[in-house]
Amino acid sequence: MNRIYQVILLVFLCSTLSAQNFEWAFTTNQYDRCSDFSDGLAIVKKGFERGYINREGQIHIPPQFNIIDAYSEDVASAGYTNFQTMDSRSGFIDRAGNFVIEAQYEVTSPFQEGLACVRMNKLWGFINKKGKMIIPAKFESASTFSDGLAPVQFQGKWGVINTTGKFIIEPKLEYLLAESEGLFCAKIREKWGYIGKNGKLLIPPVYDYASSFSDGLAKVEKDGKYGFINKQGEFVIPAKFTNVFSFSHNLAPVQIDGKWGFIDRTGAFVIPPQYDEASRFYEKLARVKMNGKWGYIRTDGSIAIEPQFDKAYDFKEGLARVTKGSKRGFIRYTPPTNKELIVDQPKAKPIELTRRKIKDGRIIKVRNTDFTIKIYDHNKIDGDIVSMNYNGNWLVKNYTLKAKPYALEMKIDPNIGENYLLLYADDLGKNPPNTAALIIDDGHSIQEVILNSDLNQCDIIYFEKEQ
User: Fold this and answer.
1) Is 351 inside any structural domain?
2) Does the pTM of the predicted model rise above 0.85?
């Protein structure tokens, strides 16, 4: 092999590996909408009804509620809407979908620190896990508790109450955000500043907009530009950006001159401004948009998943919601490893093909060195997508199983200790796991084998020639 060909092959393999840094966990085209995962579940909507799916894409609670929210403290808001009167009633369900607090409130918020905001007769109060009203519904608006304190609006002004409903900070403010790192972000005389838990003004209201503190810094707007301040109200990063998001993994997305990049906590660019859009890092991956397509980058700025999606959302609990063409669903990031560098080499061992577990498998004896296999979907045709590898070579990749068998010519290699066929699941379809039926014809007899693979493990069989 000449050197030029080696370089071309290396470039091809690198691009192939980059493109394979994700896999479809499952699709959600059967639903109208879907949320990100939280506490192991994602909300799905079909028509006017909502339910939950688990991280394998299987129904956890069938769509049956008009109103639901993510789980918090093992319960979730859920309820119904009368679409003729548009009146809604909401309560709380457990993880089995049973109401533990009846749907009797106009609106409900998630439980935080054992209390939840509920609205009755257009006023907000707080209940405990038993549904008992702990703080009477008398507030025009309210936030959830954080560190034992909650901002509430009373008679047009905002203040802060404790878990008994007593005002710790009198309602005299225009607006308040929830407490974070010992400070409340407050709107005072049309400007934003910060007050302590005792109501004392700690950072004067001089900002056009401000947000809660996170890791010692808060993003603020001044004179139409955004920067970051510390708890002394000093600009650590000058207000010079068109837009910014909060820090995560010590990096913050910022927009300048129409492009997005990422800065460190000194304000220096770590990833140059080159993207049309960008988001914060979640699970060490950040969404970025280039040339109309979304992809994901790592914290060092390298491409983790090439921009190719029409829509993309942040990674949550190992899964990210994406749309690619007509396909909607969740993907899983599969970071490259040294073992993956030999995926496309002949005679690679099964464990070198994937980080997934490999089943024990079984031995199939054939009478001829040359034989034929036919693969088809077992039982129900539900959109299973698989790849098949024989002795380190991919026979098919991303193949949608059908009712009609797909034939492949096979040959026993006498120079290999174990001749194997591995079934790799790319997409579980509507009814996990992937189940493939194989018909093995060696010219003397026909054998049928059923293989099952999912996104955690691969099924495998081994071929031996009868002596």
Assistant:
1) yes
2) no
Residue 289 tokens read as: 């948009």
Q: Which residues fall within 8 angstroms of residue 6, CB to CB, at 6 or more apart? A: none
Q: Please, what's the b/e burial string for 321-343 (b: 16 or more CB within 10 A of its CB; e: otherwise)?
A: bbbbeeebbbbebbeeeeebeeb
pLDDT at site 273: 96
The pLDDT value given to residue 189: 94
In a domain, 260, yes or no: no
Task: Take residue 212 and report the two structure tokens written for it.
Answer: 């809660």
Domain of 450, CATH number, reads 2.60.40
Domain region containing 353: 345-465
Residue 335 lies in a domain: no
Rounded to whole angstroms, the Cα distance separating 321 from 36 reads 7
Check residue 162 and give its pLDDT. Answer: 97
How many domains is the chain built from? Answer: 1
10-residue mean pLDDT profile of the chain (467 residues): values are: 38 42 94 95 97 94 96 96 93 96 97 97 97 97 95 98 97 95 96 96 97 96 97 97 96 97 96 97 96 96 94 95 97 69 47 71 91 83 82 85 88 86 81 84 89 86 89
Q: Is residue 246 part of a domain?
A: no
Q: What's the confidence (pLDDT) of residue 16?
A: 39
Give the neighbor-by-neighbor strand order of the sheet with 201-207: 175-176, 184-188, 191-195, 201-207
